[in-house]
Design brief:
Elements lengths: L25 H14 L8 E5 L5 H8 L4 E6 L2 H13 L6 E5 L2 H7 L4 E6 L8 H10 L3 E12 L11 E9 L2 E8 L2
Parallel strand pairs: 1-2, 1-4, 2-3, 4-5
Antiparallel strand pairs: 5-7, 6-7
Length: about 180
Protein backbone atom coordinates (compact mmCIF):
# COMPACT_ATOMS: atom_id res chain seq x y z
CA UNK A 1 0.00 0.00 0.00
CA UNK A 2 1.18 3.47 -0.82
CA UNK A 3 -0.01 7.06 -1.11
CA UNK A 4 -1.09 7.30 -4.76
CA UNK A 5 -1.09 11.07 -5.27
CA UNK A 6 -0.37 14.50 -3.91
CA UNK A 7 2.63 15.80 -2.06
CA UNK A 8 3.56 12.41 -0.57
CA UNK A 9 2.89 10.29 -3.65
CA UNK A 10 4.69 6.97 -3.48
CA UNK A 11 5.18 6.93 0.31
CA UNK A 12 4.51 3.50 1.77
CA UNK A 13 1.65 2.92 4.22
CA UNK A 14 1.80 0.24 6.89
CA UNK A 15 -0.62 -2.57 6.12
CA UNK A 16 -2.47 -4.43 8.86
CA UNK A 17 -1.56 -7.94 9.91
CA UNK A 18 -5.23 -8.81 10.41
CA UNK A 19 -7.25 -10.18 7.51
CA UNK A 20 -10.29 -8.51 9.12
CA UNK A 21 -9.06 -5.12 7.90
CA UNK A 22 -9.63 -4.70 4.15
CA UNK A 23 -7.87 -1.53 2.97
CA UNK A 24 -9.06 0.18 -0.20
CA UNK A 25 -6.74 -1.05 -2.93
CA UNK A 26 -4.29 1.46 -4.43
CA UNK A 27 -5.88 1.28 -7.88
CA UNK A 28 -9.41 1.87 -6.56
CA UNK A 29 -8.18 4.71 -4.33
CA UNK A 30 -6.42 6.28 -7.31
CA UNK A 31 -9.62 6.03 -9.39
CA UNK A 32 -11.70 7.49 -6.56
CA UNK A 33 -9.42 10.51 -6.13
CA UNK A 34 -9.13 11.05 -9.89
CA UNK A 35 -12.94 11.21 -10.05
CA UNK A 36 -13.02 13.72 -7.18
CA UNK A 37 -10.38 15.92 -8.80
CA UNK A 38 -11.56 15.79 -12.40
CA UNK A 39 -15.33 15.55 -11.96
CA UNK A 40 -15.96 17.49 -8.76
CA UNK A 41 -13.38 20.26 -8.91
CA UNK A 42 -10.90 18.93 -6.34
CA UNK A 43 -12.89 18.97 -3.08
CA UNK A 44 -9.77 18.09 -1.06
CA UNK A 45 -8.00 21.44 -1.03
CA UNK A 46 -8.24 22.85 2.52
CA UNK A 47 -11.04 20.38 3.31
CA UNK A 48 -11.97 18.89 6.64
CA UNK A 49 -12.15 15.14 5.98
CA UNK A 50 -13.92 12.36 7.87
CA UNK A 51 -12.81 8.78 7.18
CA UNK A 52 -15.31 6.25 8.61
CA UNK A 53 -14.30 2.61 9.11
CA UNK A 54 -10.83 4.04 8.48
CA UNK A 55 -8.76 0.88 8.87
CA UNK A 56 -5.24 1.94 7.86
CA UNK A 57 -6.38 5.54 7.36
CA UNK A 58 -5.44 5.36 3.68
CA UNK A 59 -8.38 7.46 2.42
CA UNK A 60 -8.02 10.25 4.96
CA UNK A 61 -4.23 10.29 4.65
CA UNK A 62 -4.49 10.37 0.85
CA UNK A 63 -6.75 13.42 1.17
CA UNK A 64 -4.15 15.11 3.41
CA UNK A 65 -1.44 14.38 0.84
CA UNK A 66 -3.66 16.07 -1.75
CA UNK A 67 -4.19 19.27 0.23
CA UNK A 68 -6.84 18.59 2.90
CA UNK A 69 -6.49 20.71 6.03
CA UNK A 70 -7.36 18.03 8.59
CA UNK A 71 -8.66 14.46 8.80
CA UNK A 72 -10.56 12.53 11.44
CA UNK A 73 -10.16 8.75 11.17
CA UNK A 74 -12.76 6.61 12.97
CA UNK A 75 -12.58 2.86 13.50
CA UNK A 76 -13.57 0.62 16.39
CA UNK A 77 -10.73 -1.87 15.88
CA UNK A 78 -7.77 -1.30 18.21
CA UNK A 79 -5.23 -2.70 15.74
CA UNK A 80 -6.62 -0.63 12.86
CA UNK A 81 -6.36 2.55 14.93
CA UNK A 82 -2.77 1.72 15.89
CA UNK A 83 -1.88 1.21 12.20
CA UNK A 84 -3.67 4.44 11.18
CA UNK A 85 -1.84 6.40 13.87
CA UNK A 86 1.53 4.93 12.82
CA UNK A 87 0.77 5.85 9.21
CA UNK A 88 -0.18 9.42 10.15
CA UNK A 89 3.00 9.80 12.19
CA UNK A 90 5.28 8.31 9.52
CA UNK A 91 3.84 10.70 6.91
CA UNK A 92 4.24 13.71 9.21
CA UNK A 93 0.48 14.24 9.54
CA UNK A 94 0.02 13.44 13.24
CA UNK A 95 -0.77 17.10 14.04
CA UNK A 96 -3.43 17.32 11.31
CA UNK A 97 -4.98 13.92 11.91
CA UNK A 98 -7.22 12.68 14.74
CA UNK A 99 -7.62 8.93 15.17
CA UNK A 100 -10.71 7.90 17.14
CA UNK A 101 -11.22 4.36 18.40
CA UNK A 102 -14.99 4.15 18.65
CA UNK A 103 -18.00 2.51 17.06
CA UNK A 104 -18.65 4.53 13.90
CA UNK A 105 -22.37 5.01 14.59
CA UNK A 106 -21.74 6.27 18.13
CA UNK A 107 -19.06 8.60 16.78
CA UNK A 108 -21.43 9.93 14.10
CA UNK A 109 -23.86 11.00 16.80
CA UNK A 110 -21.28 13.16 18.57
CA UNK A 111 -18.69 14.33 16.03
CA UNK A 112 -18.84 18.12 15.73
CA UNK A 113 -18.70 18.52 11.95
CA UNK A 114 -19.10 19.96 9.51
CA UNK A 115 -16.87 17.96 7.19
CA UNK A 116 -16.32 18.89 3.56
CA UNK A 117 -15.53 15.35 2.48
CA UNK A 118 -16.65 12.08 4.09
CA UNK A 119 -15.40 8.61 3.19
CA UNK A 120 -17.12 5.44 4.34
CA UNK A 121 -15.63 2.00 3.67
CA UNK A 122 -17.39 -0.40 6.05
CA UNK A 123 -16.91 -4.14 6.12
CA UNK A 124 -19.10 -5.31 3.25
CA UNK A 125 -20.99 -7.74 5.49
CA UNK A 126 -22.17 -4.79 7.62
CA UNK A 127 -24.32 -3.41 4.78
CA UNK A 128 -24.01 -0.03 6.47
CA UNK A 129 -24.51 2.38 3.55
CA UNK A 130 -28.11 3.20 4.41
CA UNK A 131 -27.31 3.95 8.05
CA UNK A 132 -24.37 6.13 7.06
CA UNK A 133 -26.54 8.12 4.63
CA UNK A 134 -29.22 8.61 7.31
CA UNK A 135 -26.65 9.90 9.79
CA UNK A 136 -25.18 12.30 7.22
CA UNK A 137 -28.64 13.59 6.25
CA UNK A 138 -29.94 14.30 9.74
CA UNK A 139 -26.88 15.72 11.41
CA UNK A 140 -24.48 18.61 10.87
CA UNK A 141 -21.67 16.29 9.77
CA UNK A 142 -21.72 17.02 6.04
CA UNK A 143 -21.09 20.67 5.20
CA UNK A 144 -23.25 22.59 2.75
CA UNK A 145 -21.75 21.72 -0.62
CA UNK A 146 -19.98 18.79 1.03
CA UNK A 147 -19.51 15.40 -0.59
CA UNK A 148 -19.46 11.84 0.67
CA UNK A 149 -18.08 8.75 -1.03
CA UNK A 150 -19.42 5.44 0.23
CA UNK A 151 -18.01 2.07 -0.72
CA UNK A 152 -20.35 -0.91 -0.75
CA UNK A 153 -20.46 -4.44 -2.06
CA UNK A 154 -22.19 -4.72 -5.43
CA UNK A 155 -24.56 -7.32 -3.90
CA UNK A 156 -25.77 -4.84 -1.28
CA UNK A 157 -29.01 -3.22 -2.45
CA UNK A 158 -28.75 0.46 -3.33
CA UNK A 159 -29.81 2.27 -0.15
CA UNK A 160 -32.52 4.87 -0.22
CA UNK A 161 -30.98 8.32 -0.24
CA UNK A 162 -32.69 10.40 2.47
CA UNK A 163 -34.00 13.92 2.04
CA UNK A 164 -31.21 16.46 2.31
CA UNK A 165 -28.78 14.37 0.27
CA UNK A 166 -28.52 13.65 -3.43
CA UNK A 167 -26.93 10.66 -5.14
CA UNK A 168 -24.75 12.20 -7.85
CA UNK A 169 -23.30 9.04 -9.35
CA UNK A 170 -22.53 5.41 -8.82
CA UNK A 171 -19.47 3.63 -10.22
CA UNK A 172 -18.70 -0.06 -10.15
CA UNK A 173 -15.21 -1.58 -9.90
CA UNK A 174 -15.45 -5.37 -9.74
CA UNK A 175 -17.30 -6.22 -6.52
CA UNK A 176 -17.03 -2.65 -5.21
CA UNK A 177 -19.52 0.12 -5.89
CA UNK A 178 -18.68 3.76 -5.13
CA UNK A 179 -21.59 6.07 -4.33
CA UNK A 180 -20.92 9.79 -4.71
CA UNK A 181 -23.36 11.80 -2.61
CA UNK A 182 -23.67 15.52 -1.93
CA UNK A 183 -25.63 17.73 0.40
CA UNK A 184 -28.79 18.78 -1.50
CA UNK A 185 -29.55 22.47 -1.91
Amino acid sequence: MRVVGGRLRGRVLTAPKSAAIRPTADRLRESLFNILVHTYGDPMTEARVLDLFAGTGALGLEALSRGAEAATLVDEDKDACAVALRNAESLGYAARCTVMREDVFRALARLPGPYDLVFSDPPYAARASGRILEALAKGPLLAGGGRAVLERDRREPLPEVPAGLRLVEERRYGDTVLLFVERAG
